[in-house]
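Ticket #121: bound-state structure for FE2/S2 (inorganic) cluster.
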Amino acid sequence: MKERPGEPRPTTRVRVLPHDELCPAGLIFDARQGRKLVDELLAHGVAIEHACEKVGACATCHVHVRSGAEFVAAVTEDEEDQLDDAWGLDAQSRLSCCVRVLGPELVIELPRFTRNHAREN
Ligand code: FES
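RESOLUTION: The complex was predicted; output attached.
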Protein backbone atom coordinates (compact mmCIF):
# COMPACT_ATOMS: atom_id res chain seq x y z
CA MET A 1 0.00 0.00 0.00
CA LYS A 2 1.58 3.25 -1.14
CA GLU A 3 0.99 6.50 0.65
CA ARG A 4 0.98 9.71 -1.27
CA PRO A 5 2.13 12.82 0.53
CA GLY A 6 -0.76 15.03 1.54
CA GLU A 7 -3.36 12.31 1.15
CA PRO A 8 -4.97 10.93 4.27
CA ARG A 9 -4.21 7.30 4.91
CA PRO A 10 -7.24 5.10 4.31
CA THR A 11 -9.00 3.82 7.37
CA THR A 12 -11.17 0.89 8.33
CA ARG A 13 -14.04 1.15 10.76
CA VAL A 14 -13.36 -1.30 13.60
CA ARG A 15 -16.22 -2.31 15.85
CA VAL A 16 -15.21 -4.14 19.02
CA LEU A 17 -18.05 -6.01 20.67
CA PRO A 18 -18.46 -5.50 24.42
CA HIS A 19 -16.09 -7.51 26.62
CA ASP A 20 -16.51 -7.49 30.42
CA GLU A 21 -12.93 -6.55 31.25
CA LEU A 22 -11.30 -5.02 28.22
CA CYS A 23 -14.10 -3.06 26.65
CA PRO A 24 -17.37 -3.19 28.67
CA ALA A 25 -19.35 -0.81 26.47
CA GLY A 26 -17.90 -1.94 23.17
CA LEU A 27 -15.96 0.44 20.97
CA ILE A 28 -15.97 1.83 17.45
CA PHE A 29 -12.91 3.51 15.96
CA ASP A 30 -11.24 4.17 12.63
CA ALA A 31 -8.05 2.16 12.24
CA ARG A 32 -5.25 2.95 9.84
CA GLN A 33 -5.12 0.42 7.04
CA GLY A 34 -1.98 -1.65 6.82
CA ARG A 35 -1.27 -1.54 10.55
CA LYS A 36 -1.45 -4.59 12.77
CA LEU A 37 -4.87 -5.00 14.33
CA VAL A 38 -3.29 -5.51 17.77
CA ASP A 39 -1.55 -2.12 17.50
CA GLU A 40 -4.76 -0.35 16.55
CA LEU A 41 -6.65 -2.01 19.43
CA LEU A 42 -3.95 -0.95 21.89
CA ALA A 43 -3.82 2.57 20.45
CA HIS A 44 -7.56 2.90 21.06
CA GLY A 45 -7.47 1.75 24.67
CA VAL A 46 -8.19 -1.96 24.39
CA ALA A 47 -5.54 -3.55 26.62
CA ILE A 48 -5.31 -6.82 24.73
CA GLU A 49 -2.47 -9.10 25.80
CA HIS A 50 0.52 -9.48 23.51
CA ALA A 51 2.96 -11.61 25.48
CA CYS A 52 5.36 -12.33 22.61
CA GLU A 53 5.52 -8.66 21.62
CA LYS A 54 3.42 -9.24 18.51
CA VAL A 55 5.50 -11.72 16.60
CA GLY A 56 2.87 -14.44 16.30
CA ALA A 57 4.39 -16.75 18.87
CA CYS A 58 2.08 -16.78 21.89
CA ALA A 59 -1.64 -16.65 20.93
CA THR A 60 -2.49 -14.22 23.75
CA CYS A 61 -3.67 -11.65 21.18
CA HIS A 62 -6.35 -14.00 19.89
CA VAL A 63 -9.55 -12.38 18.57
CA HIS A 64 -12.58 -13.48 16.59
CA VAL A 65 -13.14 -11.57 13.36
CA ARG A 66 -16.93 -11.70 13.21
CA SER A 67 -17.22 -9.62 10.07
CA GLY A 68 -14.83 -8.35 7.42
CA ALA A 69 -12.46 -11.33 7.44
CA GLU A 70 -12.74 -11.57 3.66
CA PHE A 71 -10.87 -8.27 3.32
CA VAL A 72 -7.78 -9.22 5.31
CA ALA A 73 -5.02 -11.63 4.32
CA ALA A 74 -5.79 -15.27 4.95
CA VAL A 75 -4.40 -17.12 7.94
CA THR A 76 -0.94 -18.61 7.40
CA GLU A 77 0.21 -22.03 8.50
CA ASP A 78 2.36 -20.53 11.28
CA GLU A 79 -0.57 -18.50 12.58
CA GLU A 80 -2.77 -21.58 12.48
CA ASP A 81 -0.23 -23.52 14.52
CA GLN A 82 -0.23 -20.84 17.21
CA LEU A 83 -4.01 -20.59 17.18
CA ASP A 84 -4.22 -24.23 18.19
CA ASP A 85 -3.26 -23.06 21.68
CA ALA A 86 -5.82 -20.24 21.88
CA TRP A 87 -8.74 -20.39 24.30
CA GLY A 88 -12.16 -20.58 22.63
CA LEU A 89 -10.84 -21.24 19.16
CA ASP A 90 -13.39 -21.12 16.33
CA ALA A 91 -13.47 -20.74 12.54
CA GLN A 92 -13.22 -16.94 12.83
CA SER A 93 -10.22 -16.97 15.16
CA ARG A 94 -7.17 -14.88 14.26
CA LEU A 95 -4.07 -13.60 16.00
CA SER A 96 -4.50 -9.84 16.03
CA CYS A 97 -0.76 -9.35 15.57
CA CYS A 98 -0.95 -11.28 12.31
CA VAL A 99 -3.91 -9.34 10.87
CA ARG A 100 -3.22 -6.18 8.90
CA VAL A 101 -6.20 -3.83 8.96
CA LEU A 102 -7.99 -3.64 5.62
CA GLY A 103 -11.47 -3.30 4.16
CA PRO A 104 -14.42 -1.06 5.01
CA GLU A 105 -15.26 -2.59 8.39
CA LEU A 106 -14.04 -5.23 10.80
CA VAL A 107 -16.14 -6.53 13.65
CA ILE A 108 -14.01 -7.96 16.42
CA GLU A 109 -15.00 -10.07 19.39
CA LEU A 110 -12.48 -10.51 22.17
CA PRO A 111 -12.42 -14.00 23.67
CA ARG A 112 -13.56 -14.27 27.27
CA PHE A 113 -10.20 -15.65 28.32
CA THR A 114 -6.70 -15.54 26.93
CA ARG A 115 -4.38 -18.47 26.83
CA ASN A 116 -2.65 -17.12 29.96
CA HIS A 117 -5.92 -16.75 31.89
CA ALA A 118 -7.08 -20.18 30.86
CA ARG A 119 -3.91 -21.64 32.30
CA GLU A 120 -4.42 -19.86 35.62
CA ASN A 121 -8.06 -20.96 35.99
S1 FES B 1 1.13 -11.11 20.47
FE1 FES B 1 1.87 -13.12 20.58
S2 FES B 1 0.82 -14.13 18.98
FE2 FES B 1 0.17 -12.08 18.82
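RESOLUTION NOTES: The pocket of FE2/S2 (inorganic) cluster is lined by residues 50-52, 54, 56-61, 82, 95, 97 (CB under 6 Å).
TICKET STATUS: resolved
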